[in-house]
Amino acid sequence: MERGCARQADLQPGEGQMSGAIEVEQKFLFGPSTIEKLAELGALLEGRISFRDSYYDVPDWRLTWEDHWLREREGVGWELKCPPVLGAVGSKESPCAAETDNHSSAPIWRPPRDPRSSHTATPYREVTCPQDIVTRLCGLLGRNPGQNWRCCVNKAVEELGLEMFASFVTTRHKYRVGDLHVDLDEADFGYAVGEVETMVQRLEDIPGALEKIQKFCRQLGLEETPAIPGKMLVYLHRFRPTHYQALMESRIVREVITTTEGQYGKV
């Protein structure tokens, strides 16, 4: 199973998210009954939006091998999604904390995996401050940021030799239930997936967020199914099989299988 915000239909994707906040989400496959159930649970439809996401990495895929996903979203800008870092500053973190929260050598927080559970809600840190993004990229790639592109992601992409490896358009219906956000996404390559999401600022808040999300998923009537992959993983599986296979072998992703309904699951 796995994602929202707080205004009407003019709300832009990613709006209102703080740089470095931790996104906790769980994905699910949805149908007409999901929309009916959301209404029963008091979910508010915040709007419908469409946007293009483009993802970048170096030719040997070092960033995605480290589970770092650099994305440029149409109408929003650059964002780096990465695992939370142990010891990172929480809610008192400054909006742009390049010197406190961007050491690539810091230990990564990874949630315990229960092999008996089919639900795998996942936390990711969302970094949106340009200086933070450039500092993290340079740390992973063993480069020093140049003075003229230390705070410019566009220039850093050029100087570091990053190349676009995926680009697709998503149409999203956004709902909100309290502090939980639900996104129903349809990608232009024929894959539809939903996600329940909340944002936290501190690592110690992650377990509570996971519990809240999974309780809501049960209320939504979601069945115990194999963990559902996101759009990016399905895109790689369909269109970039060599990249996908390398990530599967490095255990960043797990195998994608086709279900009887033509959608995708992850085992």
Descriptive account of the structure:
- With 267 residues, the protein is of the alpha+beta class.
- The chain contains 7 helices and 10 strands.
- The protein has an 8-stranded antiparallel beta barrel with strand order 1-5-4-3-2-6-7-8, surrounded by 4 helices. A two-stranded antiparallel ribbon has the order 9-10.
- Helix 6 (231-239) packs across helix 7.
- The radius of gyration is 18 Å and the shape is globular.
- The chain starts with 20 loop residues before the first strand and ends with a strand.
Helical residue percent band? 10-25%
Helical segment count? 7
- Helix-strand topology string: EHEHEEEHHEEEHHHEE
Strand order of the largest sheet: 1-5-4-3-2-6-7-8
| Strand tally | 10
Mean pLDDT metric: 78
Radius of gyration: 18 Å
Taking pLDDT < 50 over at least 5 consecutive residues as the criterion, the unreliable ranges are: 1-19, 86-95, 97-119, 258-267
Features:
single chain; 267 residues; alpha+beta; 29% strand; globular; disordered N terminus
Chain-wise SSE layout:
Blueprint lengths: L20 E8 L3 H9 L3 E14 L4 H4 L3 E5 L3 E6 L39 E6 L2 H12 L11 H7 L3 E15 L2 E8 L4 E9 L5 H14 L11 H9 L1 H9 L6 E3 L5 E3 L1
Antiparallel strand pairs: 1-5, 1-8, 2-3, 2-6, 3-4, 4-5, 6-7, 7-8, 9-10
